[in-house]
Design goal:
The complex is a heterodimer.
Chain A lengths: L1 E3 L3 H12 L5 E3 L16 E2 L10 H16 L12 E5 L2 H16 L6 E4 H7 L9 E5 L3 E2 L4 H12 L3 E3 L4 E6 L4 E5 L2 E5 L2 E3 L5 H8 L7 E10 L10 E4 L9 E4 L5 E4 L3 E2 L10 H14 L8 E11 L6 E5 L4 E5 L5 H20 L29 E3 L4 E2 H7 L9 H8 L12 H8 L6
Parallel strand pairs in A: 1-2, 1-12, 2-8, 4-14, 12-20
Antiparallel strand pairs in A: 3-7, 4-6, 5-6, 9-10, 10-11, 13-16, 13-17, 13-18, 15-16, 19-20, 21-22
Chain B lengths: L2 E8 L3 H12 L5 E4 L15 E3 L1 H4 L3 E2 H11 L4 E3 L3 E6 L3 E6 L2 E12 L3 E3 L2 H4 L2 E2 L5 E3 H10 L8 E4 L3 H12 L7 E2 L12 H6 L5 E2 L3 E6 L6 E5 L4 E5 L2 E4 L3 E3 L31 E3 L10 H19 L10 E6 L2 E5 L2 E2 L9 E7 L3 E9 L2 E10 L5 E5 L9 E8 L1
Helix pairs in contact in B: 1-3, 1-8, 5-6
Classes of the chains: A alpha+beta, B alpha/beta.
Chain lengths: 442, 406
């Protein structure tokens, strides 16, 4: 069976099916995994408190959330237990808070409460005094957006899965029992095809059938502030959502920075996520409006991600039993949390429709820790190459080796955080590339 | 176990090495210097061209030779390589880490000499894709001079501060000629404009009044979009070298208890180069971005003198008598903290920079009355320095530096 797309959703499905003894093959068009929609998100672990009650999205978020908590220690993945505050900045928003609490309770997130202005001030003394009140969601947390799916991919590999990178699917044919997929690496035969192609989801879907959805990539730009800024916040600061988007979030990151974003800009291009000076300035202004002290802090990094939005609010998950095709598309910004839940759902669908699932003893594949709140390798010694993010030579060497070595410089950065700090490679880029010489495919 | 010494210097560039050498000359033999790289010398180490050392050593060196000379002269001190300072604690305790793991250092005086670096693309908020091939001069120099390779062929250079001179020489060393130098202002920023660009630019077009609008490319740079005043136009290139806009390297200072000045972005100091925690001193480009290696070398020497005074209990221990406030188009002024009797036997030396090319009157007011003024015509990249006799400070509480544009 073949999974198309090695984003967070693909990696989670890959893991689930590999652990069921199905030896899946995952195909990725880019030089490395996590190169599309999964590259730029806000790195939050959601409770699903605000998801539509009867949606597939809510079910996947909540089962994904539970599974992440259950497996994180075994895979050495971080969890920054920050909680979140949905802050009302005006009377109109304040009036909406009780409904948010009520929905959270309906969604089974029972510990959600409304707090008043004073309680908000006590929790977040650096937040602008304009905050009138908030909904407190203790279970919303911060995670590492790249190490988690990397760990899923590693676990899938350990269970006999196979990953082909630089393998773009260009077409396919179904002969009533099997698929033959045409790819840039030649024809690949598949008993079942799973479409987890992210921003290309509708294009891949068209290989099987006219897609029931169309993807319009929604761009989200982010600004990452330098580490001292992380002292300005404890919780994740969420806005009162509108119909269209969850709005601009301010939160710490697992790596000890402070993040403001995303924007929500529809575009046609599925591969290119450009940043824009004016939008970044607006984001910074928005951040400073929420957290006045942020004005004193410098920007470390800027990035943009594309989330695969469709005309529907909910995820597009479906099984076509006759044509042996499973669709997992339209997974928007909540995909990082929901991925494990989506994988459970796909696993169940697979078992029902195509059978052949086994229970095997899990092999755990812990990944190196990159989060600031737990021991990092430099703390026990080592030759530091990237001084901003304190990345050692052996961490870089390890990311270039093993069963899933970095496929390009971006993949190396995501695996180690080298060159991702305040100097953005001023000091270390030549040395990093010298270490990687001959190890990264051109 | 905590490593004890009289003086601890953080940073082995021109300021730190010069300080180590000078301390030894002044009879302080128990100095430890921590350098995070595997070699001493700081930025000059990867400036492979000539232009260093004339004032310090009466001879022109290449950066690496200059770095070597600085290191040789400091060799009497305990120079520790591959040691990264992580945290500054009150009272002169510095937490560091190295190849063998964490190590604490404690000293009666700690000199911060972390240097400066150029502002990267991210902090400039430049629009466009984020492909490989966008880098600062510092990274370019390391590619070319330390690793003997240049990962591109057709660069465009952004900015015309003095460092762009080094960028051109570095590219020439790699056998490359940039497609253009792009400068937002109406004129070249570096002093002696035109002459060096004409002489060393070997016919590289200099586009002044030109804005970089956007970087084009997903994986590799394929071009840029610029505006020369006639609307957006594309220029093909395979790399973008962002030069200048130096910022003090305050990664370790900013999260600590030591005060940072919002003008210089470096630690706020008094006339003794002393920070808000009197155990800490600062010298070189960590004070501001950026002066020449020679200037940093002189500051390293000067701070050694005041460190020795501190060790002899010869410096005031009270809070500063006044803080300097800045008005008008001044990017910064330092020292930012004033003692009325300071420095004891010298006039007070101020240094400042303007935010943009400006003519006008620069004045210093002490407690509301102007005690010094001068007409200036200044460029942002040129240091303004002036002295104020100590007697003029009087019993000050408020010192204000003002620049009124004419």
């Amino acid at each position: 069976m073949v999974i198309i797309g090695a984003g967070v959703v693909g990696c989670a499905i890959f893991r689930r099916l590999a652990m069921a003894g199905l030896a899946p093959i995952m195909l990725e068009a880019a030089p490395d995994i996590l190169d599309g929609a999964s590259k730029g998100n806000s790195a939050l672990l959601h409770t699903g408190f605000d998801a539509p009650e009867d949606s597939v999205e809510r079910r996947c978020i909540q089962s994904g959330y539970r599974e992440y908590l259950a497996i994180k220690d075994k895979l050495n993945l971080p969890l920054i237990e920050s909680g979140a505050l949905v802050v009302a900045w005006d009377e109109e928003q304040l009036a909406k808070l009780p409904a948010i609490v009520a929905q959270a309770h309906r969604n089974g997130v029972a510990d959600v409460t409304q707090i008043d202005r004073d309680a908000l001030r006590r929790r977040e003394p650096h937040l602008s005094a304009r905050g009138l009140g908030a909904v407190h969601v203790p279970g919303e947390h911060i995670i590492d957006p790249w190490s988690a799916p990397l760990a899923y991919a590693h676990q899938g590999l350990a269970h006999g899965g196979k990953i082909l990178r630089r393998c773009r699917v260009t077409g396919g044919a179904f002969d009533s029992t099997r698929w033959t997929l045409q790819t840039t690496l030649g024809d690949i035969s598949a008993g079942v095809v799973i479409n987890a192609a992210g921003n290309h989801g509708d294009l891949v879907e068209a290989i099987n059938q006219p897609p029931a959805f169309a993807i319009t990539p929604r761009k989200g730009q982010f600004v990452v502030f330098d580490k001292p800024a992380s002292g300005l916040l404890h919780a994740i600061i969420l806005p009162v959502p509108t119909e269209r988007t969850k709005g601009v979030v301010a939160c710490r990151t697992a790596f000890g920075n402070l993040l403001v974003g995303p924007t929500a800009e529809d575009q046609q291009d599925r591969d290119r996520a450009d940043v824009d000076h004016a939008m970044l300035e607006q984001l910074i202004a928005k951040g400073v409006e929420m957290i006045p002290g942020l004005a004193q802090h410098s920007v470390n990094a800027i990035y943009a991600g594309l989330r695969p939005a469709t005309q529907f609010k909910d995820y597009q998950i479906a099984v076509n039993r006759e044509r042996r095709w499973i669709t997992a598309a339209g997974i928007r910004s909540t995909g990082l949390t929901a991925a494990l839940g989506i994988a459970q759902m796909v696993g169940r669908s697979f078992a029902e429709s195509f059978g052949d699932m086994r229970e095997v003893d899990p092999i755990w594949t812990p990944v190196p820790n990159l989060a600031e709140d737990r021991p990092r390798q430099y703390m026990t010694g080592g030759d530091i190459v990237c001084h901003c993010e304190l990345v050692t030579r052996s961490e870089i060497a390890a990311a270039l080796a093993g069963p899933l070595p970095a496929g390009d410089l971006g993949g190396l950065k995501r695996r180690t955080r080298c060159m991702m700090g305040r100097c953005q490679g001023f000091y270390c880029s030549a040395q990093v590339l010298a270490i990687a010489e001959g190890r990264l495919q051109p | 176990m905590t490593h004890e010494s009289d003086v601890l210097i953080l940073g082995g560039g021109p300021a730190g090495l010069s300080c180590a050498r000078a301390l030894r000359g002044l009879g302080i033999h128990n100095t430890v210097l921590l350098e995070r790289e595997s070699a001493l010398g700081g930025i000059p180490r990867h400036c492979g061209h000539l232009g260093f050392g004339l004032r310090e050593f009466g001879k022109v060196y290449t950066g690496p030779d200059y770095a070597k000379r600085l290191a040789d002269e400091a060799s009497g001190s305990d120079l520790k390589l591959n040691m990264t300072a992580l945290k500054l604690e009150p009272g002169g305790l510095v937490r560091a880490t190295g190849p063998n793991g964490p190590q604490d250092f404690h000293a009666k005086a700690v000199v911060l000499a972390f240097g400066a670096r150029e502002t990267p693309r991210s902090a400039r908020l430049i629009s466009g894709g984020r492909p490989f091939g966008v880098m600062n001069t510092g990274a370019l120099q390391q590619f070319v001079y330390l690793h003997g390779k240049c990962p591109f062929e057709r660069p465009v250079v952004i900015g015309s501060e003095l460092v762009a001179f080094s960028t051109l020489l570095t590219l020439r060393h790699a056998g490359l000629k940039p497609l253009a130098i792009i400068e937002e202002s109406a004129r070249i920023t570096a002093r002696a404009p035109g002459t060096w660009i004409a002489r060393l630019g070997f016919g590289v077009p200099v586009l002044t009044n030109t804005r970089l609008l956007r970087i084009i490319g997903r994986d590799r740079v394929t071009g840029i979009e610029i505006d020369r005043g006639f609307g957006p136009e594309e220029m093909a290139c395979d790399s973008v070298i962002l030069t200048g806009r130096f910022r003090p390297e305050t990664a370790v200072i900013a999260p600590s208890h030591v005060d940072i000045d919002s003008g210089t972005h470096g630690p706020a100091i008094d006339a003794y180069f002393r920070c808000s925690d009197h155990r800490y001193f600062a010298a070189g480009n960590v004070l501001r971005g950026i002066e020449t290696a020679g200037q940093c070398w002189r500051e390293g020497k000067a701070v050694a003198g005041t460190v020795v005074k501190a060790l002899e209990n010869g410096l005031p221990v009270r809070e500063p008598d006044a803080r300097v406030t800045v008005q008008g188009p001044l990017a910064y002024v330092y020292p930012q903290r004033i003692y009325r009797d300071a420095p004891i036997d010298h006039p007070l030396l101020f240094k400042a920079r303007v935010t943009h090319a400006v003519r006008g009157r620069l004045s210093v007011a002490v407690d509301g009355s102007v005690v010094w003024s001068r007409r200036i015509s200044a460029l942002p990249e040129r240091r303004i320095a002036w002295q104020l006799p100590t007697r003029d400070i009087g019993s000050c509480q408020q010192v204000s530096v003002q620049l009124d544009a004419a």
